[in-house]
Design a protein that fits this description.
With 232 residues, this protein is mainly α. The chain has ten helices and no strands. The chain has helices at 10-41, 45-72, 74-80, 83-112, 123-129, 139-149, 154-163, 169-184, 187-199, 206-231. The two termini are 34 Å apart.
């Protein structure tokens, strides 16, 4: 059985389903967080595109982990995959995502106020490097994507149900990863780079744009947290 009835192969169906979902719904849900983060770190087109790729890689890792669990405990998930059973997981995943979003927003704000920024000749470089690890990997973008990916979207739930007959971790992981790759090849990749390019056109406002991006991340996190608590 495939996620898309017109596609007989379940793996191709998972990828095609990800492409379709990523065209509108996934992009609309993720872009506000990606754009705010890109603004917060003062990224340009290239850095904005890389951040979007890292964000999507975090989501794909989350999907792979979920697919692996489904493959390992397929018998249990045959009984557990229902709206009633998934609802608590969705709520606590949303709470986790909101907390991660707020922490990253606060972290960006604190790094903007760091004294070492004033000693750097290029403020753009200092802001962007302040969010990366020792090897240049952006853990902030990855954490956002990973925590966001743990919130199960309806097509992913359907994919998990369809993957149950595979009953092996490899099959379930393959389906989940292909679905994630499909959503990653969406307009959000272009929009992430375009956001960095547009914001980079106002160098005199770079600091205020970064502060605004970090602030929006915090607001988005608070809104997500309130929405999740209401559902408890």
């Amino acid at each position: 059985m495939s996620l898309i009835p017109a596609v007989s192969n379940p793996f191709l169906g998972a990828f095609a389903g990800g492409l379709l979902y990523g065209l509108a719904v996934c992009t609309a849900a993720c872009v506000p967080y990606i754009a705010s983060y890109i603004a917060g770190v003062g990224a340009g087109f290239r850095k904005g595109t890389v951040i979007t790729l890292i964000f999507n890689s975090g989501r794909i890792v989350a999907y792979a982990l979920i697919g692996c669990l489904v493959g390992l405990f397929s018998g249990l998930f045959r009984l557990a995959l229902s709206d009633t059973a998934i609802s608590p997981f969705q709520i606590y995943s949303s709470i986790t995502f909101s907390i991660v979003t707020m922490i990253i927003g606060v972290s960006v704000l604190l790094k903007l106020r760091s004294p070492c920024e004033c000693n750097m000749p290029n403020s753009k470089t200092s802001v962007a490097r302040g969010t990366t690890g020792r090897f240049g990997f952006d853990f902030g973008a990855f954490s956002l994507g990973l925590s966001r990916g743990l919130i199960l979207c309806p097509p992913l739930v359907a994919l998990l149900i369809y993957s149950l007959p595979f009953s092996t971790p490899i099959g379930s992981v393959g389906l989940a990863v292909l679905f994630g790759l499909g959503t990653a090849l969406s307009p959000m990749l272009l929009l992430g780079g375009a956001t960095g390019w547009l914001l980079n056109k106002a160098p005199l406002l770079r600091k205020w744009i970064s502060i605004g991006g970090a602030g929006i991340l915090i607001v988005l996190g608070i809104a997500e947290l309130i929405n999740a608590i209401i559902k408890l």
